[in-house]
Amino acid sequence: MPSPSTVTAQPLRLGLKENAAQFLLLVVVNAFVGGLVGIERVVLPVIAERSFGLASHTAILSFLVSFGLVKACSNLMAGRVSETIGRKSVLVTGWLFGLPVPLLIGFAPSWGWIVFANVLLGVNQGLCWSTTVIMKIDLVGPRRRGLAMGLNEASGYLAVSLAAFGAGALAPALGLRLAPMWLGETLAVAGLILSLLLVHETLPFSRLEAALGSTQAGAPSFWHVFRHTSWGDRSLFAVCQAGLVNNLNDALAWGLLPLFFAANGLALSQISILSALYPATWGITQLGTGALSDVIGRKFLIASGMVIQGIAILLFVLGTGFSAWSAAAISLGVGTAMVYPTLLAAIGDLANPTWRATAVGVYRLWRDSGYAFGAILAGIIADQVGIRGAIAAVGVLTLFSGFIVAVTMRPGHPSAAQ
Q1: What pTM value is reported for the model?
Q2: Domains contained in the chain, CATH given
Q3: How far apart are the C-alpha atoms of 356 and 335, rounded to whole Å?
Q4: Closest alpha carbon to 209 in 272, 134, 276
Q5: Using one digit for the tens of pLDDT, what is the confidence trace for 376-402?
Q6: Residue 137: CB partners within 8 Å, gap ≥ 6?
Q7: What's the count of helices (H) and strands (E) in the chain, helices before strands?
Q8: C-alpha–C-alpha distance, residues 31 and 191, integer Å
Q9: Side-chain half-sphere of 123: how many Cα atoms within 13 Å?
Q10: How far apart are CA 112 and CA 104, in angstroms?
Q11: Cα-Cα-Cα-Cα dihedral of 381, 43, 271, 63, to 10°?
Q12: Is pLDDT of 114 > 70?
């Protein structure tokens, strides 16, 4: 494996077109990353009830708590470590953690093993997804970050959608546990092979951008970047809290909505469609919203996207039946697409190239901790007042997050970013 300082025979050039082959390869790799987490989105809450007899919503969502906390910490580590040892090493390591996950889902003797599988999945997702984000930002340079993040997140969440639908569709033939196992193991092996053999190191591109456009003498300390990204800069604070709430409501969609649909009489095939419809809409729409943010700026898309998400979540409570919930799922996907790639592009705008990977890691720490907070909050509320009450509470919280972005984030345009 080449060291981060390896100099290639060809001179390095920043840009999407200039690095199209590696960029597209990373898009494919990220699709495998998304697919590995997608295998759980339909079947795992149903497995908890039918295979392990869990009745408490808090207990069922325990797998999301472990996943969210570990993924959040892995994001932070991935960003910082990749500044020193390089991006590719972190990516390959993440795939090694992902290999056992499908096997544990298939053969776990108790629910505790499923929770442990999601610890490993959290490491995999934190290291691999964060690294593919950072590597794409490295390659494209400052001009097309929104488009790059739209393509990255579109590939990941379209794969989430397809894997969720595939696991649900295969379950009647292969079983609730063997269907995600076979699908997931195929994705993990393919992702590891591609990352190990074909992906190139991109840290030199980040150093090139820093040398060309930055007047900063050196990278600040980790704790300085952590404080500055988390709350020291008001725009970065707005981005971090929006990311946290976005994944908080995604935890609801992942963990409680399948149970909500099942309790209201939908068949597993219908639940598979609804569970796939939301990330599919999200994934496809990101192809346009990421590029749009390069033109109109980041703030409007983030604030309005959070509001649309909040309204969509409330529609699950207000509507009834497959058609109404399909409309809500599509609306939730559109709102999320407006927010997700735009938040990452905003971090790329606001962070200096010398500490950008660390800032991405800090942002993704807060964003993916939303899975844990969401699972705990939704589980407790659902156990006390029912699933409908939990859905409504998360919808209101998401609306409030959009208001915070509107009043806190500085107006600006990516062309003015450093």
Answers
A1: 0.81
A2: 20-211+219-416 (1.20.1250.20)
A3: 26
A4: 134
A5: 999 999 999 999 999 999 999 999 999
A6: 145, 148, 149, 206, 344, 348, 356, 360
A7: 18, 0
A8: 9
A9: 16
A10: 10
A11: 20
A12: yes
